[in-house]
């Protein structure tokens, strides 16, 4: 197991290198001049050229890339072009808000999706099954920013139950978490239903019924656990998408997380801040995938034996 974890952690290195290089190229090809944006419209060409030399922006892109990697190896994410503050300080001030939003949204998504998928599988081809799948299809089809705006119009402007923006109280997280969780609930529910429908047709399920076990025991103890492997995969992917999808949610609700910080950095061509946000999200996504693989061993003893 330890060797497997170390192997997966080593696989993260080329992923990070590729992501950093790709973002570097995208930011370099984006229109606009960083030095001119920092100095303002009244800056002279001489002032812009001097600032580019000072910041190293006139060097070849590959030199800037390897220089950033060298700083990253020493735990330095660089200095923000916009504020002049260390990127690490700003990112880790916003990161707890993104984690809090993702965790609450994941809990909402799982608590809604798993019962919905199990009930739809047990009540296959009934009105309950059709209703749950239509609900899931609507959830998959709705753009997250549109759903977030609809929640604001209903619960904030009309009913005045929750605030429109900010993170001042526990009420502030309800609408962002609901927006992010409901959108990802649909995929988990559909996968759970498909896995459960296939599992409850297996021979050992019929044997369990023949032994006289109740339907609840057969479904929850035998079918649900064995049908959880595809669902665990989708939950892990959805949590990773929540980290990335929180960009839109945090922007709509003005939630002070890493996603909103990254949008502000992109608009300001603040390359070190953008790089820091993306590196952090990439590492988080990779760790989520690692945790999914380890949860396979918890759900299925055969996989745990393979790790040994």
Automatic annotation (TrEMBL):
Q: Which residues form the ABC transmembrane type-1 domain?
A: 95-296
Q: Which Gene3D superfamilies match?
A: MetI-like
Q: Which InterPro entries match?
A: BPD_transp_1_N (IPR045621), MetI-like (IPR000515), MetI-like_sf (IPR035906)
Q: Which UniProt keywords apply?
A: Cell membrane, Membrane, Transmembrane, Transmembrane helix, Transport
Record has Phosphoprotein as a keyword: no
Parts of the chain that traverse the membrane? 9-30, 101-122, 134-157, 169-189, 229-253, 273-299
Q: Record's PROSITE patterns?
A: ABC_TM1
- GO CC aspect terms: plasma membrane
Q: Family assignment?
A: Belongs to the binding-protein-dependent transport system permease family.
- Specify the protein name: ABC transporter permease
Q: Which organism is it from?
A: Pyramidobacter porci
């Amino acid at each position: 197991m330890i060797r497997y974890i170390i192997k997966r952690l080593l696989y993260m290195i080329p992923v990070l290198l590729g992501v950093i290089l790709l973002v570097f190229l995208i930011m370099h090809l984006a229109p606009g001049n960083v030095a001119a944006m920092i100095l303002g419209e009244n800056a002279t060409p001489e002032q812009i050229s001097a600032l580019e030399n000072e910041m190293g922006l006139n060097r070849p892109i590959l030199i800037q890339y390897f220089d950033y990697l060298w700083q990253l190896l020493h735990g330095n994410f660089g200095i923000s072009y916009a504020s002049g503050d260390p990127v690490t300080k700003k990112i880790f001030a916003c990161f707890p808000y993104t984690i809090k939003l993702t965790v609450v949204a994941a809990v909402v998504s799982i608590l809604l999706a798993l019962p919905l998928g199990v009930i739809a599988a047990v009540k296959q081809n009934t009105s309950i099954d059709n209703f749950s799948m239509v609900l899931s299809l609507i959830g998959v089809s709705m753009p997250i920013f549109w759903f977030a705006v609809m929640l604001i119009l209903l619960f904030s402007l009309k009913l005045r139950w929750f605030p429109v923006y900010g993170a001042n109280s526990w009420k502030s997280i309800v609408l962002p978490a609901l927006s992010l969780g409901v959108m990802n609930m649909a995929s988990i529910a559909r996968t759970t239903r498909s896995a459960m429908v296939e599992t409850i047709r297996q021979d050992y399920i019929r044997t369990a019924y023949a032994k006289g076990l109740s339907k609840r025991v057969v479904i929850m103890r035998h079918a649900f656990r064995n049908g959880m492997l595809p669902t665990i995969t989708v939950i892990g992917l959805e949590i990773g998408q929540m980290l990335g999808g929180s960009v839109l949610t945090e922007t709509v609700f003005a939630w002070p997380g890493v996603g909103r910080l990254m949008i502000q950095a992109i608009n300001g061509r603040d390359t070190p801040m953008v790089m820091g946000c993306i590196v952090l999200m990439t590492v988080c996504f990779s760790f989520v995938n690692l945790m999914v693989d380890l949860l396979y061993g918890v759900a299925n003893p055969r996989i745990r034996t393979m790790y040994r």
